[in-house]
Amino acid sequence: MFPEPRFHPAIPAGTPPHSVRSGPTPARGRGDLPAGPPPGAVADIGFGTLGYRLLATREPLDEALIGDLVRVLTAA
């Protein structure tokens, strides 16, 4: 009924969407990544912000926005 989702070419075909949202969890558990918001929340915040900018406000996706996102998502 719905088309197959498309991901970045580095993500193997057939990867379930929930895997993309939870990808960093094993690395975080090993201590390879700092503690932070759950991966699903990071995806929601990032894609939500970008979608809002593109569809609602039509403001540019600029360095300031990316810096703001990085600061919010990496705040301890």
Key structural traits:
76 residues, mainly alpha, 4 helices, 0% strand
Explain what the structure shows.
By secondary structure, the protein is mainly α. The protein has one domain. Helix content is 57%, strand content 0%. The chain is built from four helices and no strands. The protein has helices at 17-22, 25-30, 39-57, 63-74. The chain starts with 16 loop residues before the first helix and ends with a helix. Residues 1-40 are annotated as: Disordered.
Topology overview:
Elements: H1 17-22, H2 25-30, H3 39-57, H4 63-74
Flag low-confidence runs. Answer: none
Share in helix = 55-70%
Question: Which strand-content bin applies to the residues?
Answer: under 5%
- The general outline is flat
H and E string: HHHH
Helix/strand-derived category reads: mainly alpha
Determine the oligomeric state from the structure. Answer: single chain
End-to-end separation: 42 Å
Number of helices: 4
Radius of gyration from the alpha-carbon trace, in angstroms:
15 Å
Mean of residue pLDDT values: 74
- How many domains? The number is 1
Number of extended strands = 0
Q: Give a quick account of the main beta sheet: strands, pairing sense, barrel closure.
A: none
